[in-house]
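assembly run, all chains below
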Amino acid sequence: MEDIEHIEKEMKLIGSDGRRLDGRSFDELRPIRIEAGVLRRADGSAFIEWGGNKVLAAVYGPREAHPRHLQDPARALVQCRYNMAPFSVSDRKRPGPDRRSVEISKVISEAFSSVVFKEQFPRTSVDIFIEVLQADAGTRCAGLTAASVALADAGVPMRDLVASCASGKIDGVVCLDLNKDEDNFGDADCPMAIVPRTGDVVLLQMDGHLTYDEFQKAMGLSIDAARRIYEMQRDALRRRYSVTLEDILKESPPTAPVAEERPVTSEEDFGPEGI
Amino acid sequence: MSEEIVSELMRAHIYRLASTGQRVDGRGLDQPRKVSVDRAFVKTAEGSARVKLGNTDVLVGIKMSVGEPYPDTPNTGVLSTSVELIPMASPTFEAGPPRPDAIELARVVDRGIRESKMVNMERLCITPKEKVWILFIDIHVLDYDGNLFDACSYAAVAALASTVAPAKSQGLGDDFPLPVEHWPVSVTTAKIKELLLVDPSLDEERMADARLTVTTDENGDIRAMQKGLSGSFTYEEVKRIIETAQRVGRDIRPLLQSS
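ok done. output:
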């Protein structure tokens, strides 16, 4: 225990050159990579690597809402389940939901409830699953960002994507996107999510200690970062869905007659004799 | 695991193809799908592997801690295997405590590893009767497209083989790789009417009458078996399935071993 206190006091999170332990400046994001459509069974899915975070998101629905008494005759339910794999953290986490996961699931469900066109799908539910495979602080933001892409991949009608990022305070300096060490030894953490097109804030949490000025600075950093993340989300979707002339030519070379998309019961799928 | 329905059309198609030795995805009846292994996928784990068997996608993380041995095995480490069929992986999986199918799956994977003595658990004893290493095999199914028994088993074996015990952080000397001594490979065969299909795809699995999982070691010896579903096998069929499991096992083993 003394050791830890000692480390805590001695630990400098920002060097004399103003750089953080991982070499970033105060307004720099960790590297982010998003991939859309990574799972076979889910209606939509996305994988995100965000610094040391690895998070998968999957979407099912709109589908019949279970249990039935939860069904809303006027609109769809948006339900999220955020879950951490037992091996995603340094001390094994007991499988299953804990209070933290339940809370995160709730705030993420609420964040998406405001962008999904729920009125179009009465009595159904849109189920969002977020699995944290490797955690390095900021998992809810990474999960939300990935889930947004997964919802789009599933074709769920939305007002816009949701982009998310956290800011916090370390060594008295407001910084963007804290990593695990910074989160553990820092002074504050403030995750948020916005609808980039309108700027509406759909998720906001804070713990630690920020002055009002510091809070505004943190929000400024997060909003700016969320707009950059929004572009990465759109890029991931473009990579998944854009069709180049090359693709078209590969599918149907100019010599062959233009093949229309055929139903599953075509000859090709069932062998030359048919069924 | 089999609440989804396979259409009569697809059933007829699968059966007709199989009776001429073919399968929907172009495989022969005794040919498994492509296995790909991605090691050290999770850096927060002591060992990990993400295995794709066709489109079935499984991630295994190994965590180790120090604890007490069971009173009846005071000189051996403890092995604990659990499977989470997370609702992300299939529209038929639900959140909540593990259901019988997940428990069976975890136990069959565990049995193959335990009975083959893949990891020398006696070398994971620190102080007899007091302190041993506890090995957690946590299996996370990410995408379910048939044959979880083999996919989970391959991922668990590959993850164990890449595991380094965190001895230093426990003040127990230098970190060391797990003492791996044997290489179990599980091969599952499904029976559809009178036909035997290795490594069933999702549709094949859902229309199967019976299922047999055979785990063999590097000598071709049988280390674990599990029969499932309500159908039955003839003794001749069982022998054929074991021979196939030995042969397929030989092909797959190097994929799990190479690091």
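Residues 84 and 98 of chain B are 7 Å apart (CA to CA).

Chain B touches chain A at residues 9, 12-13, 16-17, 41-45, 48, 55, 57, 59, 61-63, 65, 82, 84, 86-91, 95, 97, 136, 138, 140, 142-145 (CB under 8 Å).

not gonna interpret more than that til we talk
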